[in-house]
Amino acid sequence: MDKKRILTGDRPTGKLHLGHYVGSLSSRVRLQDEYDCFFIIADLHTLTTKPAKEDIERISDNAREMVLDYLACGIDPSKSTIYLQSAVSEIYELNLIFEMMVTVPRLQRIPSLKDMAKGANLTEMPLGLLGYPVLQAGDILMPRANLVPVGKDNESHVELTREIARRFNYLYGDVFPIPDVLIGEVPTLVGIDGNAKMSKSLNNSILISESEKDLIKKVNSMYTDPNRIRADIPGKVEGNPVFIYHDIFNPNKAEVEDLKQRYETGNVGDVEVKQKLATALNNFLEPIREKRNEFESQNGLVDEIIYEGTLKMREEARQTVLAAKKAMGLTGIWNKISRKAEKYRKTQDKK
Ligand code: ATP
Ligand code: MG
Which of 7, 8, 20, 46 to mutate to test the pocket of ligand 1 (most atoms within 8 A of CB)? Predict the structure, then answer.
């Protein structure tokens, strides 16, 4: 029997950070043998909040950096398909079809979109941003994915995908699976500034590719208990980003328990807590950094991976959209036009 499928991915807006890692990347690495995986470089999604030409110019480099992050974390391109969204033209078609399966008020109720609009300083909602989860439904259903490993902020988008798939299947017959969401080991990783979400746009992230020195600097600048102005004042561990990170990334549980106990009783300085965290994070990232450098030194490797993956995805997409159109009864005239267009192109070529 064919393996079940995964689709997930990231917007190429910069290098990936620890939030991406715990929210989604670690699940992908863990599941890539069990599932057929498709990882999307969602460049069309970047247009929703960053449509300026300068932003578009950065997409290629950002995509390359992102794929290096993937490889460094253990994603294996011989097992998984990594592809560029905008180079699969069927996505525009599926997006339009899916726009018919959803209402505007339904989209307006999705909380993450309001946050994104606010984050991008938009006073009014662009149609494309409102349609972000519809396009995402197209992404997920294009390879007919069964499972979507994402961070908590994306949960409501997968819920909408399920509704769209059900609606489509109800209207036209069973074409799409109803995909499940898989929230990462940490649903939402807090930022180093104490903001609820680590995010590229909020400038509060630690990158997967962060250098040892920059990492130490960032950890030293981290938000902790603001009431604790001296080391002998008892501090709050609960909800404190430094301890949240210790719990996730420091494998030495005894050390973490000791630090917590001394923090709560005013027997340890922030400096020691942060130093130990920086060491734990650097130990965690060191092998990833090494692998990243290795892949980076192989000229052309990343481009080749994106190229191969996109060709594979294009074929998947062609089949899916054909199946969708057939189910809808759109193919009759469409096939005829395609054949005529082919003939016409040949006569043009001869000229
Ligand atoms: P950022 O919000 O940092 O600008 P992004 O939102 O552009 O990044 P996306 O491409 O939207 O990143 O998200 C990629 C994946 O990473 C999604 O599954 C998202 O849920 C997850 N993710 C991003 N930030 C975090 C976080 N702080 N904690 C957990 N998961 C996260
Ligand atoms: Mg996001």
Answer: 20
For the CA of 201, the closest atom of ligand 1 is 4
- Those residues with Cβ within 8 angstroms of residue 181's Cβ, 6 or more apart along the chain or in another chain: 147, 148, 150, 154, 155, 158, 159
For residue 246, what is the domain's CATH number? 1.10.240.10
Residue nearest to atom 14 of ligand 1 (CA): 10
Angle at 12 between CA 312 and CA 59, to 5 degrees: 90
| Residues 305 and 288 both lie in one domain | no
Evaluate: CB of 150 within 6 angstroms of ligand 1.
yes
Whole-prediction pTM = 0.93
Q: Which two tokens stand for residue 11?
A: 């917007």
Q: Are residues 328 and 281 in the same domain?
A: no
Pocket test residue of 21, 153, 192, 203 for ligand 1, highest count of atoms within 8 A of CB: 153
| Cβ 13 under 6 angstroms from ligand 1 | yes
Beta-ladder partners of 8: 39
Q: Is 45 in the pocket of ligand 1 (CB under 6 A)?
A: no
Task: Find how far residue 26's CA is from the centre of its chain.
Answer: 12
Distances (CA, A) of 68 to 63, 288, 295, 349: 9, 10, 7, 41
Rounded Cα distance, 42 and 9, in Å:
7
Separation of 19 CA from ligand 1 center, angstroms? 6
Which one, of 207, 232, 226, lies nearest residue 217 by Cα? 207
What is the structure's pLDDT at 331? Answer: 77
Task: Check pocket membership of 19 for ligand 1, CB cut-off 6 A.
Answer: yes
State pLDDT tens for residues 319-335.
999 999 999 998 777 77
Q: Do residues 129 and 255 both lie within one domain?
A: no
Do 182 and 94 have their domain in common?
Answer: yes
- Amino acid type, 219: V
pLDDT score, position 297 = 98
Distance CA 204, CA 194 (A): 8
91 CA distance to ligand 2 middle (Å): 20
- Counting as low any pLDDT under 50, the low residues of the chain are none
